[in-house]
C-alpha cells in the first residue's frame, strides 16, 4: 500500500535491521526497543489490522507465530519468556496501519503493560 512505512521496509525503500524473511513475512528489530530483544514480524501482504483479517488472509497469523517460535529460540529468549503484542486500533496504540506483532524479551516484563 502506497505510503505505508512497513510496505516500504519490505520493499527495501526504508532500511531495517532484518532478522528473517520468507515469501510471506518479514521480521526486523524495532528502532525504539522497549526490551533487550524487541523485534517485529509483519506480513508482506498489506493487511491493515486484526480487524481486517478474514478467510482469505487469516492463515498468515499461524505462519507468523511459527516464525516467532523459531526466532525466539534462535535469539535465546524462549526459555526465560517473551511477550507477543498486537496493537489493534488507535486506543490500543497502533501507529502503523499494517498488522504487526511485537516480540519482546530479555528482561522481566511487568503486568499490566500500561
Write up this protein:
The chain has helices spanning 5-11, 59-74, and strands spanning 18-21, 25-29, 37-43, 82-85, 101-105. Helix content is 20%, strand content 22%. It starts with a helix and ends in a 9-residue tail after the last strand. A hairpin with a 3-residue loop joins strand 1 (18-21) and strand 2. The protein has two helices and five strands, in the order H-E-E-E-H-E-E. Strands 1-2-3-5-4 form a five-stranded antiparallel β-sheet, with helices on one face. The mean pLDDT is 96. With 114 residues, the protein is of the alpha+beta class. It is globular, with a radius of gyration of 14 Å. The chain has a single domain (5-105), classed as HIT family, subunit A. Residues 5-114 form the HIT domain. Pfam families: HIT. GO terms for molecular function: catalytic activity. It comes from Clostridium diolis. This is Histidine triad nucleotide-binding protein.
Low-confidence stretches: none
* CATH class identity: Alpha Beta
Encode the helix/strand succession as letters: HEEEHEE
The share of residues in extended strands comes to 15-25%
Protein name: Histidine triad nucleotide-binding protein
InterPro entries: Histidine_triad_CS, Histidine_triad_HIT, HIT-like, HIT-like_sf
Active site: 100 (tele-amp-histidine intermediate)
GO molecular function: catalytic activity
Features:
single chain, 114 residues, alpha+beta, HIT family, subunit A, 5-stranded antiparallel sheet, 5 strands, globular
Amino acid at each position: 500500500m502506497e505510503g505505508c512505512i512497513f510496505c516500504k521496509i519490505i520493499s527495501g525503500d526504508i532500511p531495517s535491521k532484518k532478522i528473517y524473511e520468507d515469501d510471506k513475512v518479514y521480521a526486523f528489530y524495532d528502532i525504539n526497543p522497549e526490551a533487550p530483544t524487541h523485534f517485529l514480524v509483519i506480513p508482506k501482504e498489506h493487511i491493515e489490522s486484526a480487524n481486517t483479517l478474514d478467510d482469505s488472509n487469516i492463515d498468515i497469523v499461524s505462519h507468523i507465530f511459527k516464525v516467532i517460535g523459531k526466532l525466539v529460540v534462535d535469539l535465546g529468549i524462549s526459555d526465560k519468556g517473551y511477550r507477543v503484542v498486537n496493537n489493534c486500533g488507535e486506543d490500543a496504540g497502533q501507529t502503523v496501519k499494517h498488522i504487526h506483532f511485537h516480540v519482546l524479551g530479555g528482561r522481566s516484563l511487568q503486568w499490566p503493560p500500561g
